[in-house]
Q: What sequence folds into this?
């Protein structure tokens, strides 16, 4: 317990990942769903950086930088879509965003 | 104990900064000294701003509280502390409470990497400049939350405008910083010198940047003239916008938005915002001084080198304080002779005596070092000089801030955003590209 | 530089990160969730520093905590409705989501337990912290006239950001 190995970091990342998945599956507020997606991406980043430390090269860190760039782009576009939808329907409930439902 | 003191006070302590030497006690002592120093600097800045603005506007400013208003900051602090703490009714109490703390946290954490000398910093992180840029960008969060938590439309609009402005000028700031970092990898001497053996390794650490300027014998302000100058001017303008100061202070201007995002804050909470604003001003000025103005280096360390010139420049701190004491004595002589002013005259004379005493003490150190040539005194002289020149350059920037506020009208918000995105960003990109090309060609 | 009190900092930072994650998914008010997410992001940046990745930690603070979270807070303020705070916060079928996520966590932990032997006995390589940024730069940009292994991906990432800027601006415009 006192010697911090790679496995410790992987467990923390798994916990963050599962918390993000719970947020995506159960919350009704779209903004909080998007924030849970950011939690998931952070968990993946932590995994990558932990493995990069284990193997001793920096490929994991470079890949995690790309994931951060990706998350920024996705957050921007996702929130843009949310704003456009909010202007149309005045709601941010996932259950009420069902215009394409048959 | 004395040995420990000896090894840590002074130029080039063994093992570097307390952060590098893993010395928690000295790191804590440095943190406390910096905290106390910044607080005193903020109070002095408060007084100087009111007096200087007043003199710019041909009036006198605070004159009553102490001699020439010297105790005005203390009176202000006491007033703010005893004011009633008002929280708006529908406001979110937790976010309302935490917003000034985030601004304060962001402003003060930056001082971890500010270098006062080659080993006088709390910790010399390898990503020093990246850390400073990142932490100073956390201040935006405090402002956004302050505006939102106040549950009132003036603070909300002020907070949105202020955060949009800060985020826009952060981009230009970052690009200007990068073009200064590019210059650290050149290893050549002089204005346009690029060494042929330069392997393209620069550094992001603050102490490394100043040491690169020392090695290249030129401040980055003058390197690749005029590229360094343009990058410096972009950073200087962006840092004024970043700290919400005139002429970019529309979000908190009184005539426009009734004090913007801190309208609903009163008493101690408002003073936390002001403390955070002044501390952020000093921090970004410290970045500008470190990156372009040579940090702690004295003027002309290579052109006017040698022990005599070192000794002459080492006398500057003491002479500065003696000069300030002389100004205080001059003020005492010009005080009206009415018995109402007796206390103020005595107070000003006492203040002059204190300043002159500090000046004499600071003169004694280099003179004793020259006479006895003891190692501790030599290193203390060097450390004193480093800290003095750094603080002098930062003080120059502080005076410039006040000068800008007195002189220029404020930008309208759409003009502000236009300048930020359409003028500053292309120019800073251009400077970056040209610096990189010149660095490769030469 | 020898690390100091590593287990203490690890447990403190990971505890703060997980607590922040819990607060993100359970708060009624979206602004409180955003604040908790900022705390989580800063704690994860601290974990990166412990993993000898200072550049990634700096990028995390500048981009994630200083950029993306400001964007989230702006949008929360724009779409803030009074009635969302008083409505039901969780789905009607939230037990199903919870059970599925717990199953996922159990899967992860069993995989780690089975593969535990892969992580032991490996000598921890000494990464020099001094040139971390430079090595990342070499991987991204290339060295001595050659392009690096990730240069192409770097250029495509910049195109991705351009597309994202255009997309966000067009999506949020009132009239195209």
A:
């Amino acid at each position: 317990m006192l010697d911090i190995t790679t496995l410790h970091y992987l467990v923390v990342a798994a916990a963050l990942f599962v918390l993000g998945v719970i947020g995506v599956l159960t919350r009704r507020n779209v903004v909080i769903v998007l924030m849970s997606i950011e939690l998931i991406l952070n968990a993946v980043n932590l995994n990558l950086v932990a493995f990069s430390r284990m193997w001793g090269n920096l490929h994991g860190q470079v890949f995690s930088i790309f994931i951060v760039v990706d998350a920024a782009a996705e957050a921007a576009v996702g929130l843009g879509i949310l704003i456009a939808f909010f202007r149309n329907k005045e709601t941010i409930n996932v259950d009420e965003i069902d215009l394409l439902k048959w | 104990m004395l040995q420990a003191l000896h090894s840590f006070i002074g130029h080039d302590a063994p093992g570097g900064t307390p952060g590098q030497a893993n010395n928690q006690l000295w790191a804590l002592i440095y943190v406390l000294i910096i905290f106390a120093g910044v607080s005193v600097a903020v109070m002095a800045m408060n007084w100087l701003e009111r007096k200087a603005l007043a003199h710019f506007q041909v009036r006198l400013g605070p004159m009553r509280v102490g001699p020439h208003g010297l105790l005005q900051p203390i009176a202000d602090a006491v007033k703010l502390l005893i004011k009633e703490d008002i929280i708006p009714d529908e406001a979110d109490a937790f976010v309302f409470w935490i917003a000034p703390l985030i601004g304060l946290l962001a402003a003060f954490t930056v001082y971890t990497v500010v270098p006062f000398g080659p080993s006088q910093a709390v910790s010399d992180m390898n990503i020093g400049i990246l850390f400073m840029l990142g932490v100073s960008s956390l201040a935006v969060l405090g402002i956004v939350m302050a505006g939102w938590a106040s549950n009132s439309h003036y603070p909300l609009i002020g907070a949105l405008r202020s955060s949009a402005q800060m985020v826009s000028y952060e981009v230009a700031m970052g690009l200007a910083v990068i073009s200064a970092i590019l210059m650290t990898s050149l290893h050549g001497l002089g204005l346009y010198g690029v060494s042929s053996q330069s392997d393209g390794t620069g550094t992001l650490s603050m102490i490394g940047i100043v040491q690169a300027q020392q090695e290249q014998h030129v401040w980055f302000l003058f390197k690749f003239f005029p590229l360094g100058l343009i990058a410096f001017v972009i950073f200087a303008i962006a840092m004024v916008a970043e700290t919400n100061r005139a002429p970019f202070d529309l979000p908190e201007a009184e005539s426009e938005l009734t004090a913007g995002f801190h309208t609903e804050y009163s008493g101690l909470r408002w003073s936390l915002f002001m403390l955070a604003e002044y501390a952020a001003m000093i921090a970004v000025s410290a970045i500008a001084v470190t990156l372009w103005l040579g940090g702690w280096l004295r003027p002309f360390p290579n052109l006017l080198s040698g022990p005599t010139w070192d000794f002459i420049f080492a006398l500057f701190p003491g002479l500065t304080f003696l000069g300030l004491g002389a100004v205080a004595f001059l003020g005492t002589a010009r005080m009206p002779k009415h018995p109402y002013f007796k206390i103020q005259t005595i107070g000003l004379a006492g203040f002059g005596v204190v300043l002159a005493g500090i000046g004499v003490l600071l003169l004694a150190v280099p003179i004793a070092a020259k006479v006895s040539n003891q190692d501790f005194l030599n290193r203390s002289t060097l450390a004193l000089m480093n800290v003095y020149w750094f603080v002098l350059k930062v003080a120059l920037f502080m005076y410039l801030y006040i000068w800008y506020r007195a002189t220029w009208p404020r930008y309208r918000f759409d003009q502000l955003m236009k300048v930020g995105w359409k003028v500053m960003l292309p120019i800073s990109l251009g400077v970056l590209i040209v610096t990189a090309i010149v660095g490769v060609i030469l | 530089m020898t690390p100091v009190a590593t287990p203490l900092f690890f447990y403190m930072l990971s505890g703060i990160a997980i607590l922040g994650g819990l607060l993100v998914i359970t708060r009624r008010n979206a602004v409180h969730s955003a604040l908790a997410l900022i705390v989580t992001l800063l704690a994860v940046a601290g974990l990166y520093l412990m993993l000898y990745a200072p550049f990634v930690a700096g990028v995390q603070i500048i981009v994630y905590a200083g950029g993306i979270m400001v964007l989230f807070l702006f949008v929360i303020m724009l779409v803030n409705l009074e009635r969302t705070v008083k409505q039901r916060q969780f789905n009607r079928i939230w037990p199903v989501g919870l059970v599925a996520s717990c199953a996922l966590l159990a899967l992860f932990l069993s995989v780690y337990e089975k593969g535990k032997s892969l992580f032991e006995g490996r000598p921890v390589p000494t990464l020099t912290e001094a040139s971390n940024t430079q090595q990342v730069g070499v991987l991204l940009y290339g060295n001595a006239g050659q392009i690096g292994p990730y240069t192409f991906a770097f250029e495509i990432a910049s195109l991705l950001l351009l597309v994202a800027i255009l997309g966000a601006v067009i999506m949020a415009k009132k009239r195209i």
